[in-house]
Amino acid sequence: MQARECTLVGPNEYELSGFLRGRLGSAHAMRAPHPVGARIVKLDERLARMTINVHHWQEPLPVAVPPANAPMTDARAAFASIILPRAHARQWAPAHLQAKRQPNGDVAISWVRCARSGGDSWGPGEPPIGAPSEAYQLDILDAAGALKRTATLNSPSFTYTSALQSADFGALPASLRFQVAQIGANGATGLNSALTITL
User: Fold this and answer.
1) Which pTM was predicted?
2) Which CATH superfamily is domain 95-119+130-198 in?
3) Is the peptide bond before 33 cis (omega within 30 degrees of 0)?
4) How crowded is residue 182: how many other Cβ atoms within 10 Å of its Cβ?
């Protein structure tokens, strides 16, 4: 979450407005509602950036975290061993998932990809793919979350035919649950977006 306006309204009290939610592919981490009194972390010029080389990903890294402006040898420093995933390299979750029953019984499923870079333009056209080729993994689930069908697709849409629905569910389902993720350059799937909808 980010806020466009942060106004000091009292001792240690700020009024936030103009919220920008789900920035930089973080929509999957959003929780609602946040409880009153929830702690927040202010990110400012004191934030230090760690330099992580490719061979460090998925490896235990010793980290020392001293108070602001204090050396790592400060007695108040906290120490930890952390393992960092390659979260910066994964594809962001698609947005605007839709599913609509067609007159012939088919279900038209569609979504919009979210670009890791170059996707903030307000002009016409689609956001950049961000990978050598466009590919998605679509999973169709039953009400209990069991996987019924997986499809690998080269465009942000899928026609779930009535024949496939009958094969998966025994009849045309009254509701549909599915999730979709973009496939990255390394062949790994990114973050999922999910939708459960009454047809």
Assistant:
1) 0.68
2) Immunoglobulins (2.60.40.10)
3) yes
4) 27
